Amino acid sequence: MDKLQAMTIFVRVVEAQSFSKAAQTLSMPRSSVTTTIKNLERHLGAVLLRRSTRTLSVTEAGERYYASCRAILSEIEQAESGLSIEASMPRGRVRADMPGVIGRALVIPRLREFEQRFPGIELVLGLSDRPADLIFDGIDCVIRSGELTDSTLVARRVGQLNWITCASPRYLKDHGEPESVDALGAHRTINYLSNATGRPLDWRFQVDGEALTVPMQSRFAVNETEAYLQCALEGLGLIQLSEFVAAPYLQTGRLREVLANARCLPVPVSVVYPNGRHASTATRVFVDWITEICREHAALATA
Description:
single chain, alpha/beta, D-Maltodextrin-Binding Protein, domain 2, 3 domains
């Protein structure tokens, strides 16, 4: 017997003072209502209702049971209502980790909008190029680029990064422009150090439909995107980074793309978070919002 259903039916019968009226309000056959009450009384070992051809009255035991049922059903209704309100007006704390350039260029300029839409959510943003461990670091979600291997997490693709090779006009004036990937050996380059391995990242190209991975020698190497970009702006050498980061400088002419015909394939950008059973409502709302604003950004949009 479904006890909650039986309680609901019993309460409705008492309040309607009729089996027939209760059955109508519950959209159930009268026979089902009658059977449920009989089974309930048998289960409790007590008579709850006195029936006659014209009247229906509640016994003393029925009065006590009715009061208890009303309290239980009211608590259930309040619990469900609370969850409904949380879904429409989520509350909580979300700790999100992302590359600094994405946080500064994309997320922080939209935080006022986020606050207006979700005033009950507190955000803690970690802006770093280092890889974060969600479980160990206590992070609710991260934005990552590249292919993902952790199958215990949910990854939602939100866009892509197009990697370009570029340099400042000052560098190109002094050293010329490389005409091919093979010509890079005669140029100065700046390497980016992986925060995961501490080693320089290989440069990647696509030539005649073939993906090329090229290790580069350099006099300078850094492990932070803003510093990497600044090295290029100072004319210290060629760099390879995402168009998302370079776009404002390409538009103003402070950087120029080279080897445009050898661009590598785009790299996916994903927001990663625990599976639905463990992610809070606030985290899922933040993930939806991040997905929305990433897909609105031209430099991250997929073809």
